[in-house]
Design goal:
The protein is an alpha/beta fold and 378 residues long. The longest helix is centred in the last third of the chain and has 19 residues. The structure holds pyridoxal-5'-phosphate (PLP).
């Protein structure tokens, strides 16, 4: 089937190349693509135009030489780690990571003979002493879930460089609008595009970005383990990126205003937001983040689990949907979603109480969000 001729015109919006395979004129054309890096595509699991366009835009945003897109945030984290470690290697990782990432390390990589030492990234002495034994990778999140603690990526990068350890930073909560890990010394930046980057809760995608010669092994790992992304999700994500900066800046403004407002509301026991001066990492967040503190905010309601249920049933305009980064405000309950399988003792240690609600603040008018929250708190 011939493509329609566009003459001297071209579409303003990149087309969707919803094809799993490409047609080649002869073996020489195939060899040129496969062996010499000539432009073109063969098989969509290896590469396709929508993934390539999205990856190029992501690399620009992250300030890296390259980016690779995977079928989810977890695919991106899996590819990043699988490409770096061998049996017998050791990883040092934050003990505040997203639950599935913790399981990837503690269960899956453990099965392949890769051991992980978990440390509190907020305790720099603990991290430093863990890095005194050889470690292939240090994995942290820029802003942790749900308590929004920051990792001092600048200091960690100094140590990992001195130790021959790859520093991998999951930047999902910060987004490249507020923080570019590569500029602070991270070797690999990981994003779940499912969240704020694509921004409309209609794709599941992730990305790994970096500079230097890790690209080849990362690309191979993505393809061999079958972690690649489909064209339509890439097409949607590229569209989402056009408004990323606007959404992040506006939602961060709303979140800061809400955080201050929440501290004065009835039935609110505590408010957790890095933009508040009483947050333990307020100074670090002010130093690392680009002039805003992000769209994620937590608050604890009186009455524990029952108090949360009352809130969810009444604040119907703030959907209870356990993800983040949607255009409008949504909420989640860490104790029964992201940290559902964490022991009670560990939840207590981290301060994840039954009354804790996590808000992913959107870009709607502040007054609309306040009205719904007030209804929930009444
Ligand atoms: N990293 C963080 C910080 C997350 O919160 C999540 C998901 O919630 C992921 C990674 C995984 O992303 P995905 O759901 O796209 O696999």
């Amino acid at each position: 089937m011939d493509e329609p001729s566009l003459g001297r015109s071209r579409p303003l919006v990149p087309p969707l190349y919803q094809s799993s395979v490409y047609v080649l004129p002869d073996l020489d054309a195939l060899d040129a693509i496969m062996d010499e890096g000539a432009p073109g595509f063969v098989y969509a699991r290896d590469a396709h135009p929508n993934a390539q366009l999205l990856a190029e835009r992501l690399a620009q945003l992250e300030g890296t030489d390259w980016a690779l897109v995977g079928s989810s945030g977890m695919a991106a984290i899996s590819a990043a780690l699988l490409a770096l470690v061998q049996q017998g290697d050791r990883i040092v990782a934050s003990n505040r990571l997203y639950g599935r990432t913790t399981q990837l390390l503690a269960r899956e990589l453990h099965r392949f003979g890769v051991e992980t030492t978990f440390v509190d990234p907020c305790d720099l002495n603990e991290v430093r002493s863990a890095l005194q034994r050889p470690a292939k990778v240090l994995l942290v999140e820029t802003i942790s879930n749900p308590l929004l603690r920051l990792a001092d990526v600048e200091t960690l990068a100094r140590w990992t460089k001195a130790n021959d350890t790859w520093l991998c930073v999951d930047n999902t909560f910060a987004t490249p609008v507020l923080f570019r890990p590569a500029e602070w010394g991270a070797d690999l930046t990981i994003e779940s595009l499912t969240k704020m980057l694509a921004g409309h809760s209609d794709v599941t995608l992730g990305a790994v970005a970096g500079t230097g010669d890790l690209l080849g092994t990362q690309r191979q790992t993505m393809s061999i383990w079958g972690l690649s992304a489909n064209p339509f999700d890439c097409w949607l994500a590229l569209r989402g990126l056009e408004t990323l900066a606007l959404r992040v800046r506006t939602a961060s403004e709303r979140a800061l205003a809400l955080a201050h407002w929440l501290t004065r509301q009835p039935n609110v026991v505590r408010v957790i937001y890095p933009g508040l001066v009483d947050h333990p990492d307020h100074a670090l967040a002010s130093r690392l983040l680009a002039g805003a503190f992000g769209n994620m905010l937590c608050f604890e309601v009186a009455g524990g689990r029952d108090g949360v249920n009352r809130f969810l049933r009444q604040a119907v305009g703030i959907p209870f949907s356990p993800s983040l980064g949607h255009t409008t405000t949504t909420c989640s309950h860490p104790a029964s979603t992201s940290h559902r399988y964490v022991s009670q003792a560990e939840k207590r240690r981290q301060g994840i109480s039954d009354g804790l609600i996590r808000l992913s603040v959107g870009v709607e008018e502040l007054a609309d969000i306040q009205r719904e929250i007030s209804r929930g708190l009444a």
